[in-house]
Structure formats: structure tokens, C-alpha cells
Write a structure and sequence with these properties.
The protein is α+β, with helices and mostly antiparallel strands. The protein is built from 13 helices and twelve strands. Among the domains are: 5-50, 2-Layer Sandwich (Uridine Diphospho-n-acetylenolpyruvylglucosamine Reductase, domain 2); 225-329, 2-Layer Sandwich (Enolase-like, domain 1), CATH 3.30.390.50. Strands 4-5-8-6-7 form a five-stranded antiparallel beta sheet. It has a four-stranded antiparallel beta sheet with strand order 9-10-11-12, with helices on both faces. It has a three-stranded parallel beta sheet with strand order 1-3-2, covered by helices on one side. Strand 2, helix 2 (34-39) and strand 3 form a beta-alpha-beta unit. The chain starts with a strand and ends with a helix. Bound molecules: iron/sulfur cluster.
Length: 331
């Protein structure tokens, strides 16, 4: 590991200044991804600015009936918060589906959004990888890619985003709040992750040096009927093969509102807006759920060895919406 300086910030302005004044400096949250990448030589920051002592911890009510989750809140605390569990159950379930208890105790909400892909070629500095070294190529396209993307990828990168939490946040129309030395800003999660395109090394729309301060969940998305389900290669401590966060609001026998986001299928949480459009105003039947899933997955372009993800995603959409509709009908 390359030698680096370490400093602990207790004020947001101090953290922003430290990163602005030191080329190669990086914010350090729980370190559960960054430190691993430093050990393998993928990341080589010159300075780590520890942000865990900043006053950005905790969950509070928003004026619109939603919630604001501070960026340094640990994943464990976010998942355990009673109002997160009550108003946004799929978010609590998604966070609990991620990693292990030990990692969730360390990992922060802000850091979770910024974690890097788990593509094995990205993690190996001996391999060509456009995300790590722009212009070097993509070893995964001709290599091992059974767990790579089927939606939204490009000839330059076919990696998936690893976060479970971000999938639920996408379904709930979350907004990322950040701070720079020039002032505060916010980015809807739908625009937070950049399309893969020809520069997969550029992953988010955050301005240079920006520090994530919070994630806001709008009150309009709150409700008890949402669910997160994750399919993975083993029962715990594994990244999603395909996952889904969904919420369904059925009134008088028709779908009044629906939210669907898929994980494990693209370089960012994939909001399934085509599927949602098929469902809004329709009767919540299994046939309609299947038609909605197929409308979304029409855009899928599977790689040589991951066509199974299209079938899996379709079946997950049908199954989870069916569960949510059944719950509604049982009321
Ligand atoms: Fe790198 Fe993306 Fe290709 Fe993986 S899929 S090797 S991250 S360019």
C-alpha cells in the first residue's frame, strides 16, 4: 500500500478545505471499500480525510413527511431506525441485505453510495479496465462476466453497481445532498450516477471535492407497502445477482402508484419506468406484472454468459409485485 497522510475532520468546512488543498486526498467514511482498494493498489490516495466525526449523523424528519438520513449514519443505524422501517421498509430491508453485520456497523450511508464496482478485473491492477485506467480496454467483455450488466452498458464497460441501499433509494426518488466550498447542492438519485458511456471512470454527478452530507427521502414515497428482494449466489455476504426494490399502492382494484428499481443489472440502480407505466391505472394481475417486466426488459442486451439475468429479473418483478398486491388484497 502506498504511504498516505491521515487527518480527522470535525467540521465540514475543514474537511472540504483539506480535500481542496491536497491533490489526491479522499474522504474516508467507514473505509469498508476504499481501504480494500488501497490494499490492492487500485486506489492510491495521498491523504485520507476522516469524516466520521462530522456532525452529519442521524435520521430526522423532513417537513414534507419524509426523512433525511445523515451521510455518516452507519448502515446498521439507518436500517434499525424505527421511522425508516415504518415509512420505507424496502430501504431497511435493502440495507440489511448488504454485506455482513460487522461491515454494516462500519459502513456509512454516504460511503455506500460511492462504493465501486466489484468487477474482478477492476480490482486487479494487472488487468485492462477502462474504469480504472481509461482507454486500457475492458477485460470482462470477452472474459468472466456472468454477473455483469444486461441493461445500460456500453462497449467500454459492462460492470454493475454493488449497492443494495441505492436500489431502494432509487425506487423512493431519494435526493443526495452535498456540500462544496462554493455552497450546498442536491442531485436526485435518478441523475446521481452517470450513464456508462465512453468514460466509465466518471461515475457520479458530484462536483469535484464535494462531500455528501445527507440523503433525503420524500414524504410522497413513504408508505408501509414496499419490499426489497435480493437473489445472490449464497445466502449472505454476497452481492446481488439481481435485486428489486418495489412499492405498490392499489386502490379500488387498480394500481394508483408503483415504484420499481432493479439492482445487479446495470452500472447504476435501474429505475424500471417502462414497467411502471404499464402498471399505473391497470388491474394488479400476474399477467399485467409479466407484461410490465417484459416492457422494461425489452431494452436488455445480455452478454455471452448472463442472459439468465433477464429471466431472473422478469420473475423477480412478477413475484414481488404479486406479493405486494396480495398484501393489499388481504387488508
Ligand atoms: Fe473494468 Fe468495467 Fe470492464 Fe469491469 S466491466 S473490466 S470495471 S471496464
Amino acid at each position: 500500500m502506498r504511504e498516505f497522510a491521515y487527518q480527522r475532520a470535525t467540521q465540514v468546512h475543514d474537511a472540504l478545505t483539506a480535500v481542496a488543498e491536497n491533490a489526491g486526498a479522499r474522504y474516508l467514511g467507514g473505509g469498508t471499500n476504499l481501504v480494500d482498494l488501497m490494499k490492492s493498489g487500485v486506489e492510491e490516495p495521498t491523504r485520507l480525510v476522516d469524516v466520521r466525526q462530522l456532525p452529519l449523523d442521524g435520521v430526522r424528519d423532513a417537513p414534507d413527511g419524509g426523512l433525511v438520513i445523515g451521510a455518516t449514519t452507519t448502515n446498521s443505524d439507518a436500517a434499525a431506525h424505527p421511522e425508516v422501517r415504518r415509512r420505507f421498509p424496502a430501504l431497511a430491508q435493502a440495507v440489511l441485505a448488504g454485506a455482513s453485520g460487522q461491515l454494516r456497523n462500519m459502513a456509512t450511508v454516504g460511503g455506500n453510495l460511492l462504493q465501486r464496482t466489484r468487477c474482478g478485473y477492476f480490482a486487479d491492477p494487472a488487468q485492462p479496465c477502462n474504469k480504472r485506467v481509461p482507454g486500457s480496454g475492458c477485460a470482462a467483455i470477452a472474459g468472466v462476466h456472468h454477473n455483469h450488466a444486461v441493461l445500460g452498458h456500453s462497449p467500454h464497460c459492462v460492470a454493475t453497481h454493488p449497492s443494495d441501499m441505492a436500489v431502494a433509494l432509487a425506487a423512493f426518488d431519494a435526493v443526495v445532498h452535498y456540500q462544496t466550498l462554493a455552497g450546498a447542492g442536491e442531485i436526485p438519485l435518478s441523475r446521481f450516477y452517470l450513464p456508462t458511456g465512453d468514460r466509465p471512470d466518471r461515475e457520479t454527478a458530484l462536483p469535484p471535492g464535494a462531500l455528501i452530507t445527507a440523503v433525503a427521502l420524500p414524504g410522497a414515497a413513504a408508505g408501509p407497502r414496499s419490499r426489497y428482494r435480493k437473489v445472490r449466489e449464497r445466502a449472505s455476504y454476497a452481492f446481488a445477482t439481481v435485486s428489486i426494490a418495489a412499492a405498490l399502492d392499489v386502490r379500488d382494484g387498480v394500481v394508483r402508484d408503483v415504484r420499481i428499481a432493479l439492482g445487479g443489472v446495470a452500472s447504476r440502480p435501474w429505475r424500471a419506468r417502462s414497467a411502471e407505466a404499464v402498471l399505473r391505472g391497470a388491474r394488479p394481475t400476474a399477467d399485467r406484472f409479466r407484461s410490465a417486466a417484459e416492457a422494461e426488459l425489452d431494452a436488455a442486451v445480455p452478454l455471452r454468459d448472463n442472459g439468465y439475468k433477464v429471466t431472473l429479473a422478469r420473475n423477480l418483478v412478477v413475484a414481488v409485485l404479486g406479493e405486494l398486491a396480495g398484501t393489499e388484497q388481504d387488508r
